[in-house]
């Protein structure tokens, strides 16, 4: 039987506020345990929550960026369950009337584009951390993270493969960092993915029973976990078993998922509107201010790159894969005296990206800055450097040997464009290679290339290849 | 409507309160008396009435995003049942 | 001096005829003598009180002139007060020393009022007789066999016995007004949102409101001036201009329209209570007020509605008491769940557990709409009844409680009977309106009777005026129990 995979993702993004969602404690990462847990975060008797404007603003920005409906009045509810990292015994979250509903995200899977619909995005507080190192057989609780603002972004079950799920997760990661509402740091837990996975026979309308894989903190694990889970579910069904709705964890060491709890053991969360918090109203002023703060979005940039710069859809999508790539590209083109977007695009996606990848560096940390790259490209444009020489200069720049012009000067890499000088070399080469000249005249085009090669060699690669071509043709014709 | 002993044990588990069987029986009787009182609500047709969650029809005030709380770990942990290395200790949590 | 009103005490201090230290010492001595009988206080700390008194005297010496500077006050043990044990009447918090001050505590500190201690109360404010306190019941100063009412029973008893000139209370379903009535003092529950709930241990967040308890309405006005005000730390605290609640005290009552909700006067009120209320109505007519019959058709449902909403909110509010960060943790336990279940079973008393279980049930899967949502809809109908009725009157009047104080132990075994004793007070909390109770006579058993006034939203000053004018014409509020 042919099986189809159905995937929906729930992503917890940590918002880039200074303070917590309901208290004035810092959310800075890495502090000593419980030094950033104030009375409200610890749920001391009598304390009360007050909503952080910064969290609301970021959620609104996200809603605007995905073309969603913003609920002008939205509500906070309590999700009740006991857990030692949840000090109040309930999590303040949004249940009915979340701040953001609907919207969509376009993803690129290979050459294909696909739209993934979003169900909702709601604000909530994070829990603390349980540290399982051994404290005489006990668990240690650090509540620094408790109350950190999260935007939980829930997709529709629109993805049909692990690859699509990863593409969506990456596109979402790009978007939230792009608009600055999340730092995207997956190691620190700023972007955590839960995947709802089910399978069904191809052609079947209704969904299969889903299992939820919790807390995937890398794109690689996301792909591995879904692939494993899909294989497992198909095997189960083909062996005559039924899939039970369940929550599972992915173990990166074994590459397998393992059951946490079944639906029967699921919590009864007893959601109800939090009486300590009033309905949140989004007024026009706030929404318009957020709209005006939104940068040009990846999709908008892609269309512009294609329309105005004549770039291909693939190039446009690659250049907007992160905001820092796009901004590097744009700063580079702006610094060129004669704009050549294709040239800049090729270098950003080619030499620069390749070297960054090799070194494991983010484009924002590139040792070569856009202005410097533009200066290098300028030397290609004005004929000072051949493509080959430019790569040499690039390597030297990467190694910290200075700016392009200084390197060209120091290494004497300047392209030879003086016609007289080139003609002199050509004359010498023709004199030394009568056989090739003869072959060319006999109609062998290959011989021409050999002569060009000889001229380039004699010029130590500095002669302008186009000029060599032209002058050589003239000479041979003459 | 009447709560069974199983109902009592189920909600007691949800509420994380240990209830012995004798307690459950006694509590059940009292709760059923209370629910008899509560059932009076069902006689009223509330179709079209919006639930009232708050006494005042006002919207949430938003706090400026600023760090205002200093570290008071020492004072807060002085009243804790069990701490070590700045952490609150609880019986082993199994995930 | 302990017979003096707040205004008189303030005058004595202002004129230098006494000091805060002297005043506090006198009250502390009285507490030391009488508290063993009344059990009105859970915590008394002479040194702490006298230190605060000294601070007040220093402030005055340096030119400080606050109205209530140096006048002591007793705080219900529901308010977190830094460095003071704050137990909420529960074993769960019997070892809890608060690391911070509630807004109400800060307000009174700012006013320069030393704390005489923390008063006894029903556990987590759940009760109408003060018998659910882990620290034992409070005795009614008027009759030691009787309950003082609850949940602010310690506050009411200590003011009635003049162990303190004033006290703070909280009122979720009548917890200021009912004990005030049963102990012959004046108590006011403000409009929801007027006094910050920050640092007041939550019972039912959408209903809880703190207020003053003192011998007279005038005292309550002065206290409310100190207590009320916007607090950014409570999202439900209302941003309103500061007002002087004593501003209308002296207004004559001519032309005042008093609404008499007919449901209050239907069967259920004890005859001696009914007689006292009728007498009070007659007094108001003498003072120039008119009466008009109004109706609150859904009031009868307020008790069932309350016993869904309050336990639901409470079941969630009390989840934080888990033995992890503070409070009681069982001495012996196995795994984590066992630790939770034992700590909470040991830390909470029977009434608190009952209400947590009710609340958990009405919020649980499959029951939420039938109970919780239905109760919230009825809450709106009850609130709308008041809004309609206030179109015909300025204030409403009725009894605070259906009977005088009942005997200790009389209703312990029957929670429903206990709940029904709050029939006249609960609807006011559901609507979020201000209400108060003031002394208006004594029953056949010699126990006090309270008159309830209900004001429109934010009409505290008007309500206090109506109460004050009655107290100028009567002396019920000046009577104190004999033999103490």
Features:
heterotrimer; A: alpha+beta; Arc Repressor Mutant, subunit A; 3 domains; 10-stranded mixed β-sheet; 3-stranded antiparallel β-sheet; 15 helices; C: 484 residues; Amidase signature (AS) enzymes; 3-stranded mixed β-sheet; 11 strands; 38% helix
SSE layout and pairing:
The complex is a heterotrimer of chains A (478), B (95) and C (484).
Chain A (H helix, E strand, L loop, with lengths): L2 E12 L38 H13 L3 E2 L2 E2 L2 E4 L9 E4 L6 E2 L2 E6 L2 E14 L3 E7 L2 E5 L6 E7 L6 H17 L12 E11 L9 E6 L2 H20 L7 E6 L4 E7 L9 E2 L6 E2 L2 H10 L4 H12 L3 H7 L3 H13 L5 H19 L10 H12 L5 H12 L5 H8 L7 H14 L1 H8 L3 H14 L6 H13 L1
Parallel strand pairs in A: 13-14
Antiparallel strand pairs in A: 1-11, 1-12, 2-6, 3-17, 4-5, 4-16, 6-8, 7-8, 8-11, 9-10, 12-13, 14-15
Helix pairs in contact in A: 1-4, 2-3, 5-6, 7-8, 7-9, 9-10, 12-14, 12-15, 13-14, 14-15
Chain B lengths: L4 H10 L6 H18 L34 H5 L5 E2 L2 E5 L4
Antiparallel strand pairs in B: 1-2
Chain C lengths: L5 H9 L5 H19 L2 E3 L2 H16 L11 E4 L26 H8 L4 E5 L33 H8 L6 E5 L5 H7 L2 E4 L19 E6 L2 H11 L29 E5 L9 H16 L3 E5 L7 H16 L18 H12 L2 H14 L4 H22 L5 E5 L15 H6 L5 H6 L3 E8 L5 E8 L4 H14 L11
Helix pairs in contact in C: 2-3, 5-6, 7-15, 9-11, 9-12
Would you kindly provide a written description of the structure presented here, covering whatever features stand out?
The complex is a heterotrimer of chains A (478), B (95) and C (484). Chain A has 478 residues and is an alpha+beta fold. Chain A has 3 domains: 3-289, no CATH class; 296-411, no CATH class; 419-477, Arc Repressor Mutant, subunit A. Helices cover 40% and strands 21% of the residues of chain A. Chain A has helices at residues 53-65, 162-178, 219-238, 284-293, 298-309, 313-319, 323-335, 341-359, 370-381, 387-398, 404-411, 419-432, 434-441, 445-458, 465-477, and strands at residues 3-14, 69-70, 73-74, 77-80, 90-93, 100-101, 104-109, 112-125, 129-135, 138-142, 149-155, 191-201, 211-216, 246-251, 256-262, 272-273, 280-281. In chain A, strands 1, 2, 6, 7, 8, 11, 12, 13, 14 and 15 form a 10-stranded mixed beta sheet that branches. In chain A, strands 5-4-16 form a 3-stranded antiparallel beta sheet, with no helix packed on it. In chain A, strands 3-17 form a two-stranded antiparallel ribbon. The mean pLDDT of chain A is 93. Chain B has a domain at 5-42: Histone, subunit A (Orthogonal Bundle). Chain B has helices spanning 5-14, 21-38, 73-77, and strands at 83-84, 87-91. Chain B is built from 3 helices and 2 strands. Chain B is 35% helix and 7% strand. With 95 residues, chain B is mainly alpha-helical. In chain B, strand 1 and strand 2 form a beta hairpin. Chain B is flat, with a radius of gyration of 22 Å. Chain B has a two-stranded antiparallel ribbon with strand order 1-2. Chain C has 484 residues and is of the alpha/beta class. Chain C has a domain at 6-249: Amidase signature (AS) domain (Amidase signature (AS) enzymes, Alpha-Beta Complex), CATH 3.90.1300. Chain C is built from 15 helices and 11 strands. Chain C has helices at 6-14, 20-38, 46-61, 103-110, 153-160, 177-183, 217-227, 271-286, 302-317, 336-347, 350-363, 368-389, 415-420, 426-431, 460-473; strands at residues 41-43, 73-76, 115-119, 167-171, 186-189, 209-214, 257-261, 290-294, 395-399, 435-442, 448-455. In chain C, the strands form 2 sheets. In chain C, strands 4-6-5-10-11-9-7-8 form an 8-stranded mixed beta sheet, sandwiched between helices. Chain C has a 3-stranded mixed beta sheet with strand order 1-3-2, sandwiched between helices. In chain C, helix 2 (20-38) packs antiparallel against helix 3, helix 5 packs parallel to helix 6 and helix 9 (302-317) crosses helix 12 (368-389). The model of chain C has no long low-confidence stretch (mean pLDDT 97). Chains in contact: A-B, A-C, B-C. Chain A binds chain C through residues 39, 42-51, 78, 80, 82, 84, 87-90, 141, 268, 270-272, 275-278, and chain C through 79-80, 86, 88, 93, 96, 98-100, 102, 197-202, 204-206, 232-236, 312-313, 315-316, 318-322, 324-326, 336-337, 340, 360, 363-365, 368, 372.
């Amino acid at each position: 039987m042919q099986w189809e995979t159905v995937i929906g993702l729930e992503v917890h993004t940590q918002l880039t506020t200074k303070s917590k969602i309901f208290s004035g404690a810092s959310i800075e990462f890495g502090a000593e345990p419980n030094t950033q847990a104030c009375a409200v975060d610890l749920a001391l008797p009598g304390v009360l929550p007050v909503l952080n404007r910064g969290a609301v603003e970021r959620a609104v920005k996200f809603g605007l960026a995905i073309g969603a409906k913003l609920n002008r009045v939205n509500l906070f509810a309590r999700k009740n369950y006991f857990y030692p990292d949840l000090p109040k015994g309930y999590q303040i979250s949004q249940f009915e009337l979340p701040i953001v509903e609907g919207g969509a995200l376009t993803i690129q899977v290979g050459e294909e584009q696909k739209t993934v619909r979003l169900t909702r995005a709601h604000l909530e507080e994070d829990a603390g951390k349980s540290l399982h190192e051994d404290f005489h057989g006990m668990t240690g609780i650090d509540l620094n993270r408790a109350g950190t603002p999260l935007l939980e972004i829930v997709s529709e079950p629109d993805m049909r493969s692990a690859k699509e799920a990863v593409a969506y997760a990456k596109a979402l990661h790009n978007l939230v960092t792009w608009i600055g509402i999340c730092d995207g740091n997956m190691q620190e837990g700023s972007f955590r993915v839960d995947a709802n996975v089910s399978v069904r026979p191809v052609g079947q309308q209704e969904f299969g029973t889903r299992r939820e894989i919790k807390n995937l903190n890398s794109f690689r694990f996301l792909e591995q976990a879904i692939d494993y889970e899909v294989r497992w579910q198909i095997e189960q069904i083909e062996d005559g078993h039924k899939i039970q709705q369940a929550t599972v964890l992915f173990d990166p060491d074994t590459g397998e998922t393992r059951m946490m709890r079944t639906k029967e053991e699921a919590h009864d969360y007893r959601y109800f509107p939090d009486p300590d918090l009033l309905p949140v109203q989004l007024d026009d002023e706030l929404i318009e201010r957020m709209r005006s703060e939104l940068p040009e979005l990846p999709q908008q940039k892609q269309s512009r790159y294609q329309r105005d710069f004549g770039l291909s859809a693939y190039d446009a999508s690659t250049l907007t894969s992160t905001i820092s790539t796009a901004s590097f590209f744009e700063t580079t083109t702006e610094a060129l005296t004669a704009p050549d977007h294709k040239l800049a695009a090729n270098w950003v996606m080619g030499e620069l990206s390749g070297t960054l990848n090799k070194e494991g560096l983010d484009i924002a940390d590139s040792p070569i800055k856009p202005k410097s790259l533009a200066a290098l490209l300028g030397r290609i444009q004005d004929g000072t450097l051949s493509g080959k020489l430019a790569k040499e200069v690039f390597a030297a720049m990467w190694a910290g040997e200075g700016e392009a012009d200084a390197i060209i000067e120091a290494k004497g890499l300047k392209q030879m464009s003086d016609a007289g000088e080139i003609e002199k070399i050509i004359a010498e080469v023709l004199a030394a290679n009568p056989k090739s000249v003869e072959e060319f005249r006999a109609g062998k085009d290959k011989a021409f290339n050999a002569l060009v090669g000889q001229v380039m060699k004699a010029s130590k690669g500095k002669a302008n290849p186009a000029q060599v071509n032209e002058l050589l043709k003239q000479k041979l014709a003459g | 409507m009447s709560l069974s002993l199983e109902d009592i044990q189920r909600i007691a588990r949800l509420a994380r309160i240990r209830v012995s069987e004798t307690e459950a029986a006694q509590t059940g009787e009292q709760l059923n008396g209370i629910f008899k009182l509560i059932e009076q609500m069902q006689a009223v047709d509330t179709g079209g009435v919006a639930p009232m969650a708050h006494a005042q029809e006002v919207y949430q005030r938003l706090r400026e995003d600023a760090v205002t709380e200093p570290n008071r770990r020492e004072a807060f942990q002085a009243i804790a049942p069990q701490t070590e290395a700045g952490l609150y200790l609880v019986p082993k949590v199994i995930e | 001096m302990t017979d003096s009103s707040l205004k008189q005490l303030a005058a004595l201090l202002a004129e230098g005829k006494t000091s805060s230290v002297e005043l506090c010492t006198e009250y502390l001595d009285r507490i030391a003598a009488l508290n063993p009988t009344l059990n009105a206080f859970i915590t008394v700390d002479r040194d702490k009180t006298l230190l605060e008194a000294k601070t007040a005297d220093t402030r005055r010496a340096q030119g400080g002139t606050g109205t209530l500077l140096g006048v002591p006050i007793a705080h219900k043990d529901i308010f977190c007060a830094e460095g003071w044990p704050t137990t909420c009447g529960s074993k769960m918090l019997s070892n809890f020393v608060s690391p911070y001050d509630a807004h109400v505590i800060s307000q009174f500190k700012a006013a320069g009022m030393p704390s005489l201690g923390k008063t006894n109360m029903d556990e987590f404010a759940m009760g109408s007789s003060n018998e659910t306190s882990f620290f034992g019941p409070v005795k009614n100063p008027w009759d030691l066999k009787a309950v003082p009412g609850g949940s602010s029973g310690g506050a009411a008893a200590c003011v009635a016995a003049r162990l303190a000139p004033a006290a703070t209370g909280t009122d979720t379903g009548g917890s200021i007004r009912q004990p005030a009535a049963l102990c012959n003092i004046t108590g006011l529950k403000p409009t929801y949102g007027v006094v910050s709930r920050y640092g007041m241990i939550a019972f039912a967040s959408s209903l809880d409101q703190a207020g003053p308890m003192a011998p007279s309405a005038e005292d309550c006005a002065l206290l409310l001036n100190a207590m009320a005000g916007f607090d950014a730390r409570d999202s439900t605290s209302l941003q309103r201009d500061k007002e002087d609640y004593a501003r209308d005290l002296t207004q004559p009552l001519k032309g005042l329209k008093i609404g008499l909700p007919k449901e209050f006067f239907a069967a259920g009120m004890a005859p001696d209570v009914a007689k006292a209320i009728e007498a009070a109505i007659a007094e108001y007519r003498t003072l120039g007020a008119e009466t008009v019959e109004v109706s609150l058709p859904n009031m009868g449902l307020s008790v069932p509605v309350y016993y869904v909403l309050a336990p639901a909110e409470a079941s969630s509010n009390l989840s934080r008491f888990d033995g992890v960060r503070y409070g009681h943790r069982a001495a012996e336990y196995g795994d984590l769940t066992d630790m939770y279940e034992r700590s909470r079973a040991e830390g909470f008393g029977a009434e608190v557990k009952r209400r947590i279980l009710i609340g958990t049930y009405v919020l649980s899967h499959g029951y939420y709409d039938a109970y919780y949502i239905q109760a919230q809809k009825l809450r709106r109908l009850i609130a709308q009844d008041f809004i309609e009725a206030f179109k015909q009157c300025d204030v409403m009047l009725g009894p605070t409680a259906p009977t005088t104080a009942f005997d200790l132990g009389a209703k312990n075994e029957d929670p429903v009977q206990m709940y029904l004793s709050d029939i006249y007070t609960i609807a006011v909390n559901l609507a979020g309106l201000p209400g108060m109770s003031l002394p208006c006579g004594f029953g056949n058993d010699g126990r006090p009777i309270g008159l309830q006034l209900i004001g429109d939203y934010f009409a505290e000053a008007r309500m206090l005026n109506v109460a004050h004018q009655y107290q100028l014409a009567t002396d019920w509020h000046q009577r104190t129990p004999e033999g103490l």
